[in-house]
């Protein structure tokens, strides 16, 4: 079966610093992959490379078997298919909640205003934000903003949705609501790559866990194996701090 | 002196009024057209000052050239006095356009303001969080769409106080256009004072008129600014779609 995203020998440097070193992995339809690891291990950079917010130095990123780093690929079309949810939400501050979810549909997907609005209202309902569609982002709490950001990404009908530490900037109390939305999404069959420090979420929801350390994938496997019987010494050390 | 000034104001009011009208015409059109020039030049500078990693060699070269041209424009018009620009451009281009002094005045003040506005807007655009750009790009918006829908509206809002200040400056600085005989407030005052040989009294009136103009303007701008930053007091809620959880649908086979 063809993988949705396949990454081969991906390398990325920032100056002298090697951030990603020969990364290889793939994701299939309906997969939920969580990427764990300490700060600076290259998790976010990996996500940003898949979305082309960072351009890798070397390697291949295949979307449906086609290399997105080569040739005449339309970067903007690619980004529309690969959604991204950021740690700092990044809602458009000059737009209402509803408009945040409509603008991409109208400008990028060229949907009509009515269609965009219908879709936006539906998805805002699924993340439980219907009562806030006229609010401006400044009036929302962090958890609410992140749920709107998820709805905004979903409005583009992405094939893969990338989450870059979606709960790291939230109050502990707000984390639950956002994770609940993400769990529902995972159950609905959405293909997701989630960079997270929420080990409970990783264990419960993911189909595969990837452990990264200093730019390398050290270990990869089903959550039960990673969390109960990690093969790598470094993985064990990292998880012991979370699970102790 | 005050009594005399009041006499002058009453007697020569039609002349003052003509000057006020020209001054307002110059400062309003100059600020508006200058803002439009600044929007274009500022956005272009902001886009051209950084090259994207996927840009081709040609795109990079074009960006550099465009950036250089805008630099020359901004530096020249900010680095020389408007009075000098006025005399230089008015007489220099008179054989070509054979233009009216008021039209020339509007052009000069607009181009001059545009150079300042470009820098004001560039800093306004730079103050917009880079996350806004990344979010827009991540849903597939082009650099132009990102600028137009997301960055520019926020940049302009951030820059609004400085933009308004430029308007106030223009009310005052349009007086230098008397150098090419634009019949604005200073030019009119000079004419009145010269005809009755009462410079102090006449220019007391002039100063007060300028003060009223600028003071009113700053108050209005301040009111607009407060209004702009006020969030909507109540927001409409969706009546059409009930709250619902996501239903599993396909895909998860």
UniProtKB/TrEMBL annotation, chain A:
InterPro entries linked to this entry: AAA+_ATPase, ABC_ATPase_HisP-typ, ABC_transporter-like_ATP-bd, ABC_transporter-like_CS, MetN_ABC_transporter-like, P-loop_NTPase
Molecular function (Gene Ontology), one example: ABC-type amino acid transporter activity
Membrane topology: Peripheral membrane protein
A Pfam family recorded for this sequence: ABC_tran
CDD domains associated with the record: ABC_HisP_GlnQ (cd03262)
Keyword Membrane among UniProt keywords: yes
Subcellular localization: Cell membrane
GO cellular component: plasma membrane
Keywords: Amino-acid transport, ATP-binding, Cell membrane, Membrane, Nucleotide-binding, Transport
Ranges for domain ABC transporter: 5-239
Domain of life from the UniProt record: Bacteria
Major localization listed first in the record, in broad terms: membrane
Similarity field: Belongs to the ABC transporter superfamily.
UniProt cross-references to PANTHER family, sorted A to Z: AMINO ACID IMPORT ATP-BINDING PROTEIN, GLUTAMATE_ASPARTATE IMPORT ATP-BINDING PROTEIN GLTL
Protein name in the entry: Amino acid ABC transporter ATP-binding protein
Source organism of the structure: Anaerotruncus massiliensis
UniProtKB/TrEMBL annotation, chain B:
Membrane-traversing stretches: 24-44, 65-91, 203-221
Entry membrane topology: Multi-pass membrane protein
Compositionally biased spans, kind Basic and acidic residues: 244-253
GO cellular component: ATP-binding cassette (ABC) transporter complex
Alphabetic keyword roster: Amino-acid transport, Cell membrane, Membrane, Transmembrane, Transmembrane helix, Transport
GO biological process annotation, one example: amino acid transport
GO MF entries: transmembrane transporter activity
Positions of the UniProt region annotated as Disordered: 232-253
Family: Belongs to the binding-protein-dependent transport system permease family. HisMQ subfamily.
Full protein name: Amino acid ABC transporter permease
Species of provenance: Anaerotruncus massiliensis (ex Liu et al. 2021)
């Amino acid at each position: 079966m063809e993988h949705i995203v396949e990454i081969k020998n991906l390398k990325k440097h920032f100056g002298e610093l090697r951030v990603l070193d020969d990364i290889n992995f793939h994701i299939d339809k309906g997969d939920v992959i969580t990427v764990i690891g300490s700060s600076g291990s290259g998790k976010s950079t990996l996500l940003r490379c898949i979305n082309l917010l960072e351009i890798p130095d070397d390697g291949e990123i295949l979307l449906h078997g086609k290399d997105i780093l080569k040739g005449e690929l339309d970067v903007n079309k690619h980004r529309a298919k690969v959604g991204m949810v950021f740690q700092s939400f990044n809602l458009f501050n000059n737009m209402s909640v509803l408009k945040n979810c409509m603008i991409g549909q109208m400008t990028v997907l060229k949907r009509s205003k009515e269609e965009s609005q219908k879709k936006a209202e539906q998805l805002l309902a699924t993340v439980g934000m219907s009562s806030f569609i006229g609010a401006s982002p400044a009036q929302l709490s962090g958890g609410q903003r992140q749920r709107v950001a998820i709805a905004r990404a979903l409005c583009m009908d992405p094939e893969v949705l990338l989450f870059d530490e979606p709960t790291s900037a939230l109050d502990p109390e707000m984390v639950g609501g956002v994770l609940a939305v993400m769990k529902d999404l995972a159950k609905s069959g959405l293909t997701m790559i989630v960079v997270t420090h929420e080990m409970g979420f990783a264990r419960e929801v993911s189909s595969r866990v990837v452990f990264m350390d200093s730019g390398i994938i050290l270990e990869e496997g089903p959550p039960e194996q990673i969390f109960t019987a990690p093969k790598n010494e470094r993985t064990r050390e990292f998880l012991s701090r979370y699970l102790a | 002196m005050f009594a005399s000034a009041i006499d002058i104001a009453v007697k020569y009011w039609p002349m003052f009024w003509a000057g006020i009208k020209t001054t307002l015409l110059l400062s309003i059109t100059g600020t508006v057209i200058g803002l439009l020039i600044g929007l274009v030049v500022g956005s272009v500078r902001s886009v051209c000052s950084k090259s994207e990693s996927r840009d081709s060699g040609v795109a990079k070269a074009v960006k550099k050239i465009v950036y250089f041209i805008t630099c020359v424009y901004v530096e020249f018009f900010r680095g020389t006095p408007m009075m000098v620009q006025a005399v230089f451009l008015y007489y220099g281009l008179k054989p070509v356009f054979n233009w009216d002094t008021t039209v020339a005045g509007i052009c000069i003040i607009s181009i001059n303001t545009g150079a300042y506005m470009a820098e004001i807007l560039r800093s306004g655009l730079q103050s917009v969080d880079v996350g806004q750009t990344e979010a827009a790009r991540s849903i597939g918006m082009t650099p132009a769409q990102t600028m137009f829908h997301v960055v520019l509206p926020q940049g302009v809002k951030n820059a609004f106080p400085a933009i308004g200040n430029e308007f106030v400056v223009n009310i005052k600085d349009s007086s230098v256009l008397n150098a090419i005989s634009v019949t604005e407030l200073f030019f009119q005052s000079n004419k009145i004072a010269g005809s009755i040989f009462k410079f102090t009294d006449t220019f007391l009136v002039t100063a007060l008129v300028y003060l009223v103009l600028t003071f009113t303007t700053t108050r209005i701008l301040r009111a607009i600014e407060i209004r702009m930053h006020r969030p909507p007091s109540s927001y409409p809620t969706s009546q059409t779609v009930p709250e619902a959880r996501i239903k599993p649908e396909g895909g998860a086979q």
